[in-house]
């Protein structure tokens, strides 16, 4: 294991009806609130009215910014920064999915920063420590953004999707009511399930030795998703399945399985590059790219892929080499994702080979990306080609 420090103070309020905690939680941070939300799902579901009701009870001054895009955009982040500065707001309430919460984090970090917030997102500048406090009401299981310091933002002027991580933008509290996720459509439910599994993979395929507990925790999350997702996609309003999936999403990317390990993240860098050029849903892109990435790394280091096959997909290792087990594991993963209806080819989203070089450029943040098996530019190009 590597030495590490771990600090995750996000308070989780989990369960049915927890939205009514807003009136208790928000006043500690101030009553001048930026209410941030997405394209309208919260209005259709009635959540918007409930949130406004809570804010009224504490006499909050509310400024709204709706329309945060899936794959949230820098232009929207800048709008939020301006609204907070102009109206002297002191708190951001993000109600929605990972996109809304990620936008909230970039806004929070950008307000006290004199320069361009894109400098923070791309890591050229550090997020200031006095970021605006954030609270969240999460409405879709997947990213884990409700309990981490990550924010992923797209700049359409340059076709770049970049991310930053800062403890200063960790949500102060997050409300996780599984009932609020009951309206998530089937495709987004599938993308969320895939995303959760890939967050485990990114940390499971690490470059550090001796992390058996972190790996076992990751395997437990993977097995729980594999057990739950097929039932959930056929029974979208089932509360029990929704609550299991919501907690899976939070624990897959709140630092728990990443303690003391040097994680990989190449699959995410490649997917972000695809989204930056083609604006496809994140989990859909991951479902397509991850098996091709796994094939590439299994060719060099099959042992961990073999372990995944035995421990998560219950493969019988008797008389098989790691390479054979790894190939079976990847087949099992593909079959599982196909069985819940995940996409398998980028061409399903209308992506062709025209932008392969641009996407490869965007993914290559360094000469090599990923840590379990560092990938060259040629590797990334091949993974993208194979994904078409
Ligand atoms: O915009 P609205 O109308 O709310 O609709 C959304 C959106 O169309 C809809 N939705 C969300 N909750 C719903 C619902 N529809 C009906 N009922 C509900 N209860 O679902 C669509 C997708 O929402 P989005 O927030 O984009 O999904 P997700 O949570 O998957 O977030 C994706 C973004 O997060 C980034 C991705 O790159 C992408 O930009 N990621 C963030 C991470 C993080 N912060 O740690 C890690 C991830 O790896 C990921 O990169
Ligand atoms: Zn992800």
From TrEMBL:
Swiss-Prot/TrEMBL keywords: Oxidoreductase
Gene3D superfamilies: 3.40.50.1970, Dehydroquinate synthase-like - alpha domain (1.20.1090.10)
Annotated Alcohol dehydrogenase iron-type/glycerol dehydrogenase GldA domain residues: 9-178
Superkingdom as given in the UniProt entry: Bacteria
UniProt-listed CDD domains: BDH
One Pfam family, short name: Fe-ADH
Annotated Fe-containing alcohol dehydrogenase-like C-terminal domain residues: 189-387
InterPro entries reported in the protein's UniProt record: ADH_Fe/GldA (IPR001670), ADH_Fe_C (IPR056798), ADH_Fe_CS (IPR018211), BDH-like (IPR044731)
Name by which UniProt lists this protein: Iron-containing alcohol dehydrogenase
Organism: Paenibacillus artemisiicola
Upper lineage: Bacteria, Bacillati, Bacillota, Bacilli, Bacillales
């Amino acid at each position: 294991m590597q030495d590490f420090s771990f600090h995750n103070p996000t308070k989780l309020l989990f369960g049915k009806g927890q939205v009514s905690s807003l009136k208790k939680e928000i006043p500690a941070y101030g009553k001048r609130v930026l209410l941030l939300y997405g394209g309208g799902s919260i209005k259709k579901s009635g959540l918007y009215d409930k949130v406004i009701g809570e804010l009224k009870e504490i006499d909050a001054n509310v400024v709204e910014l709706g329309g945060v895009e899936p794959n949230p955009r820098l232009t929207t982040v800048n709008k939020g920064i301006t609204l907070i500065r102009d109206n002297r707001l002191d708190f951001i309430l993000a109600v929605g999915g990972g996109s809304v919460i990620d936008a909230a984090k970039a806004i929070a970090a950008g307000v006290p920063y004199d320069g361009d917030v894109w400098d923070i997102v791309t890591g050229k500048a550090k997020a200031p420590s006095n970021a605006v406090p954030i609270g969240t009401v999460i409405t879709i299981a997947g990213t884990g953004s409700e309990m981490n310091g990550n924010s992923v933002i797209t700049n359409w002027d340059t076709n770049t999707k970049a991310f930053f991580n800062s403890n200063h933008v960790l949500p102060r509290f997050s409300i996780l009511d599984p009932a609020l996720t009951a309206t998530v459509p089937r495709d987004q439910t599938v993308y969320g399930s895939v995303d959760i599994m890939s967050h485990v993979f990114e940390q499971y395929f690490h470059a550090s030795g001796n992390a058996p507990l972190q790996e076992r925790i990751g395997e437990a999350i993977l097995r729980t998703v594999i057990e739950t997702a097929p039932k959930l996609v056929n029974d979208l309003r089932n509360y029990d399945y929704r609550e299991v999936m919501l907690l899976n999403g939070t624990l897959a990317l709140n630092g728990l399985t990443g303690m003391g390990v040097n994680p990989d993240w190449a699959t995410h860098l490649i997917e972000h590059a695809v989204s930056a050029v083609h604006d496809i849903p994140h989990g859909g892109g991951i479902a397509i790219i991850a098996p091709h990435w796994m094939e590439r790394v299994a060719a060099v280091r099959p042992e961990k892929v073999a372990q995944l096959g035995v421990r998560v997909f219950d493969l019988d290792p008797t008389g098989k080499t790691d390479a054979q087990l790894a190939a079976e594991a990847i087949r099992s993963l593909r079959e599982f994702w196909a069985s819940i209806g995940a996409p398998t080819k980028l061409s399903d989203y209308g992506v062709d080979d025209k932008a392969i070089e641009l996407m490869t450029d965007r993914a290559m943040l360094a000469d090599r990306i990923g840590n379990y098996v560092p990938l060259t530019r040629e590797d990334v190009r091949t993974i993208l080609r194979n994904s078409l």
